Amino acid sequence: MIQASETLRELAATFACLRTEPAPDVLPPEESVTRAREKLQQHLPESGLGLEETTKHLQEAIIPGLNASSRSPNYYGFVTGGSTPAASLADNIVTAYDQNVGVHLPKETVATNLEDRALVLLCELLKLDPAQWPHRTFTTGATASNMLGVACGREYVIAEASAVRSDATNSVGELGIYEAMHRAGIDKIQILTSVPHSSLSKAAGILGLGRASIRSIGLEGASHKIDIAQLKKLLEQPGTASVVAISASEVNTGAFATSSLQEMLEIRKLCDMYGAWIHVDGAFGIMGRILTLPTHSTIINSCAGLELADSITGDGHKLLNVPYDCGFFLSRHREIAARVFQNPGAPYLSTDATDTIMSPLNIGLENSRRFRALPVYASLTAYGSNGYRGMLERQIELARAIAEFMLESEDFELLPKFEGSKEEALNNIYIIVLFRAKDDSLNKELTNRVKASRKIYVSGTAWEGQPACRFAVSNWMTDAKRDLPIIKQALINVVKGWKKSKEEIGIVHS
Ligand SMILES: *Cc1c(COP(=O)(O)O)cnc(C)c1O
């Protein structure tokens, strides 16, 4: 039989130590991945291997084939945060206790109070007044949070359209989308946005609005920025309800859709006029609100006014540096929460109606839920606002140092092309650095050659129809002094290796 507590403690200790030892290389050797794949159990064992043998199997056969991105500060693919020591510790406790945080049961466990407190601390970190954001919950990530945002927006804009015609509230949650729209007298719901994350289209698809409901309203020549004139024109269309999605730092360039409080005030005013819902996708951009330095003023201004939105998406497993899978969702509309997400007709799940904490199962997607609040709570408690600000400042410092290297390099080029001074160009940089090789033939192979170095990891993407590479700096261990030389050396070696291979096949003659 399973020996519960001792074994759990040992396992927690084993895996906690695995997480804090920095990995020598950013990826395991490819042979290790292949070997691990070959050693996977081919069939369900009839009598299990037992805990001891299984631990050995995991340690010796499986772990060498894992890409432990959070253990290496030089992993710059996606926006992969690591896991802070406090968050890692708490995550082991989550597994050991296996709380189900679906129903608010304040006499039985502190879990739901802690979850709500973690969300309040998070609001404080992000300079959002918790009293203004009463619908708050943890999700599995920013994709799920965007789903909640679009679902709440859909509910709200139909109710707003109904209010114009009658005093009835036509709820999609109750009536379904077709009947609610019909009664509200609208025949179209559009999502107006600029450079949206792919997960916004996914949300629109799942929620019955359709991926085709996404309309890009980026400015010409600066597609990441909302074109306010176009916004007004589209909001005005009769019979149409709108959700406006603000990309607060988009994944390719890190650019923000708005650049001042003034712009957000204008967007808010227009949306109020036409009953539209504003959703902010701030998966990692929302953390820009914790910055204070004058050299970060471009980012600070881009985050100003995001508190005017109706809902906000944030990711925990990105810049908060808690383990996968953790996102958060905030909305200013508590009544919408229950209209969309109530889990009705299960009286055994109800709790005291006078308590201000709502059962998570009535305000989000899942019924049974992991206690993903605990790592966030532990990490915010351990490091506080200064600790998180310090982490983000170190991440921006490295991103800007990489960008500076690109600006000065003969072989690489910083994207998007920027017409101002070097200082201005660098002040635009948040934690993302998009770049390409100047030579087209190297550029085609660039991402794969960088990955093959196994010293640093970058993502491949496309920019203006050409391949491009992207650094996303997001690990709490980031340290420009230590990491920049590793990055430069890896990139220099990539260029050297490419030149050498060209000479070998006789293409470069000089
Ligand atoms: C990463 C990201 C998402 C999706 O987040 P997941 O955590 O992968 O679900 C959505 N929007 C933006 C802007 C992102 O950067």
What's the arrangement of secondary structure elements?
Elements (H helix, E strand, L loop, with lengths): L3 H17 L9 H9 L11 H13 L22 H13 L13 H15 L9 E5 L2 H24 L6 H4 L1 H8 L3 E6 L4 H9 L7 E3 L1 E2 L2 E5 L1 H8 L4 E8 L13 H13 L3 E5 L15 H7 L7 E5 L11 E5 L2 H8 L31 H36 L3 E4 L6 H6 L4 E6 L2 H14 L5 E5 L2 E7 L7 H25 L6
Parallel strand pairs: 2-3, 2-6, 6-7, 7-8
Antiparallel strand pairs: 1-9, 4-5, 8-9, 10-11, 11-13, 12-13
The structure holds pyridoxal-5'-phosphate.
Pfam family, one: Pyridoxal_deC
GO biological process, one term: carboxylic acid metabolic process
GO cellular component, one term: cytoplasm
How does this structure look, described?
GO terms for molecular function: carboxy-lyase activity; pyridoxal phosphate binding. It comes from Trematosphaeria pertusa. With 510 residues, the protein is an alpha/beta fold. It folds into three domains: 1-69, no CATH class; 100-370, Type I PLP-dependent aspartate aminotransferase-like (Major domain) (Aspartate Aminotransferase, domain 2, 3-Layer(aba) Sandwich), CATH 3.40.640; 384-509, Alpha-Beta Complex (Aspartate Aminotransferase, domain 1), CATH 3.90.1150. The protein is 45% helix and 13% strand. It has helices spanning 4-20, 30-38, 50-62, 85-97, 111-125, 142-165, 172-175, 177-184, 198-206, 228-235, 261-273, 297-303, 334-341, 373-408, 422-427, 440-453, 480-504; strands at residues 135-139, 188-193, 214-216, 218-219, 222-226, 240-247, 277-281, 311-315, 327-331, 412-415, 432-437, 459-463, 466-472. The strands form three sheets. It has a seven-stranded mixed β-sheet with strand order 1-9-8-7-6-2-3, sandwiched between helices. Strands 10-11-13-12 form a four-stranded antiparallel β-sheet. Strands 4-5 form a two-stranded antiparallel ribbon. Strand 7, helix 12 and strand 8 (311-315) form a beta-alpha-beta unit. Helix 6 packs across helix 9 (198-206). The longest helix is centred in the last third of the chain and has 36 residues, at 373-408. The chain is globular, with a radius of gyration of 25 Å. The termini are far apart. The model has no long low-confidence stretch (mean pLDDT 92). The structure holds pyridoxal-5'-phosphate (PLP). Pyridoxal-5'-phosphate is lined by residues 79, 141-143, 146, 197, 199, 250-251, 281, 283-284, 315, 327.
